[in-house]
């Protein structure tokens, strides 16, 4: 298992280019299953999760070709309507093929994802929606089997805002008979991007980005040619790195409007933002101010930035209260940050972070994708050397992280293992 070795303490300076969004690319890849033919998706990041989705689609009979940063998916000869346990357990987003498969082929068998490091993460809302659209749902041996002659339009209310749940049902509804209304739908930019891709395929969708989405089903869709949006979480992570290292980083190719709430908090913490050509220049203070945050569905503070922000707060002046409202177990990074000297305690979903002057390098373990990013953020400021183990978590979601960091003059190396 690879590890990352970082010598901290440098003021990072330079420019980076943001990659395509993992969480936008994966649903559009799944959407390719809705039509027969050749789909071309551009700005697809070169990541482990993208490869896993490619394997999943190939396993179903699609032809998947990937060249950085373009995915070509041929979907005329789909023969196996299944997402097996071996792939779903590697990547929960595999469940995104459920809606498209039932919509186009009338049946699907998808392994239940089970819990993961950040929480139980059930898919009951995905299933409730499909059932409302007339699918028969059976659970057998850890698999969900969904069947329907043709899905029919329905009004579906989500008790909890769910990103992939909204995406799955929006895809399913594109080929249903009649109109589907999704109420309390997720409003994340990745949902909007998927709707844009689906519209290019011929889908009729109104309201993506709002909490009420209306989808009028059509008989057939055509393959897609789409470029996915830039990764707002990668951009936010590099902004945090600027804040952490007293850095001066110009971030190109990101959409700042996708990070509004997050940037407001960084500004409160003392970071400065200046307009730059194709992007933004982010200047970090000598030491940030402590700021309280609470995660919320978009447009609130993203849960996917909570761990990295907590790393920043660990060296802030003052005490910060971090409240996680989306996932019940998303504090796995706390114990690792404490190994580096951070003063953090938590009870339930609230962490109290008492800022200290210096973190110290240590051996730490990545437990999930964003937790691993928070360890990178912390290590870049820490005195001495930090070794981050189980790096495969980081590789799931950050494209060429160490190369980008080296471009900012960080002292980072990967050790193969
Ligand atoms: N939930 C239910 N039932 C459901 C679906 C969700 O109770 O049927 C609950 C979840 O347990 C959670 C909350 O609803 O408490 C929100 O979860 P959501 O469904 O929105 O999460 P997701 O769609 O599984 C996506 C991203 C995550 C990101 C979350 C929240 C993708 C592929 N994944 O997950 O990204 O944290 O939305 O914004 O889009 C990551 O990239 O590291 C990552 C974990």
Task: Explain what this protein looks like in three dimensions.
The chain has 417 residues and is of the alpha/beta class. It has 2 domains: 203 residues, Enolpyruvate transferase domain (UDP-n-acetylglucosamine1-carboxyvinyl-transferase, Chain), CATH 3.65.10.10; 206 residues, UDP-n-acetylglucosamine1-carboxyvinyl-transferase, Chain (Alpha-beta prism), CATH 3.65.10.10. 31% of the residues lie in helices and 26% in strands. It has 14 helices and 24 strands. The protein has a 4-stranded mixed β-sheet with strand order 22-23-1-24, covered by helices on one side. The protein has a 4-stranded mixed β-sheet with strand order 2-15-17-16. A 4-stranded mixed β-sheet has the order 4-5-3-14. The N and C termini lie close together (4 Å). The structure holds uridine-diphosphate-2(N-acetylglucosaminyl) butyric acid (EPU).
